[in-house]
Amino acid sequence: MSRPLFEALRAAILAGEPVVLATVVEVGPEAVGATQLAAKLVIRPGHDPLGSLGDRELDRVVVRDALGALDVGVTTTRHYGPAGESRRDDVAVFLEVFAPPSRLVIFGAVDFSRALVEVAKVLGYHVTVCDARPVFATRRRFPLADEVVAEWPDRFLEREGGRLGPRDAVCVLTHDAKFDVPAVLGALATPVGYIGAMGSRRTHKERWRRLVEAGADEAALAERLMSPIGLDIGARTPEETAVAICAEIIALRSGRGGRPVVPLRDEAGPIHPR
Amino acid sequence: MKEILGAVDGWLMGGKKVAIARVVGVEGSGPRDPGATMAVNEDGEVAGSVSGGCVEGAVVGEALEVLAGSPARVATFGYSDDEAFSVGLTCGGTLHILIERLDW
Questions:
Q1: Is B102 close to A14, i.e. CB distance below 8 A?
Q2: Given A127, A149, B36, B104, which residue has the most CB atoms within 10 angstroms?
Q3: Residues A201/A227, Cβ–Cβ less than 8 Å
Q4: Does residue A239 sit at the B interface (CB-CB below 8 Å)?
C-alpha cells in the first residue's frame, strides 16, 4: 500500500525540515458530503501541498493558514465554512506544526558545557559547542553535541547568527572576558530568544563593565542578558547547573520571565495557561 | 509523531496494519498537548502515548475497532456527568483524540 502523505511527512520530520499536517477533526452538517473527518493536507514550504480536504477553496485557505502557523511554530485548530469561509465553524482543521528543533549554542568547551549538552539533548535541542581553542573543542569531549566548532564566538555568530530566532538560546560559559565579551556582543546582534552568561556576581559586574566599554547598549543588556545564568535552585554540580540553566530557558520561552518562578504549590490558577 | 516513526516503520515493513491516535484538542488541564501521538498495530502493540497513562487502554480498544473496519472517529475522554465518558482523567481535563487507520 502506498502512503504518499505519511511518507512526505515522515521524510520531512526525519530530515528536520518544516512541515504541517492539516487534518479535519470536525465536520458540521453544512460540510457533510464534500469534506470527510480525517481528510488531510501535508504542507511544506516550497513544495506543492499533498492531499485534499474535499474543497479546492478550503484547501487554498488552509494551506495559507498552515504556512502562517509554521512561521510561529505553533500547533493550532482553525475553523472554516465548507469552502474555507472565515467566521464560520462548519469544518475544524487541526494544524499540527513540525518545525525544526530549537537551537542551543554553547560558548566555552568546559565541564559545565558537557553537562549542559546532555540536558539540552534530553529536551530535544540541536546543540552546538563553540570554543576558540581547538584542544578543547573536540568531538571526543562532547559526544552528544550535534556540532563542535573550533572558532572565535564573534566569527561563529557572524556566520550563523542570522539563523537564530526567538525559539533558540545562546549560553556563554567560557568564564573568560576575552571570549565572553565577543560572544555576548555577537548574540545581542541576533534575535535569539535567550542569552545567558555564567559567572560569579563579581565576574558578572566585571563582564558588564567590559561589555559597556565594548559598546553594548545597557538597556539591551538589562533586557536580554541573563547573568549570572540560571534559576536559583541551589545547583552546585555541572549537571545541577545545567538543569538550572535549562529551567530558565524554558521559563523565558513560555513567558514566565516577567515574574518570579515559584513552586506550583505556592500558586493558584491553571498550570498550563492557554 | 517523531517518537513513533521507528516502531511504525517496523510494523509496516512486517505487513502489519497500523492505527494512529492523536490528541487534537485539550480542554482544561491536560497531561499532554495537542499533537501527542500513539500508534497501535493490529496485534495491539503500542508506541508513544496520548496521556499520562489514563486513557491509553481505552484508545487501544478504539484503535483495534478502527483497524477492524470501523470509520475514523474522534473519541472524547474526561470528567463529565454524561455516562458516555466512562474513562476519566485524574487531572479533570478533557481530551479529544482522533483515531484513524494509517492508510494515507
A1: no
A2: A127
A3: no
A4: no
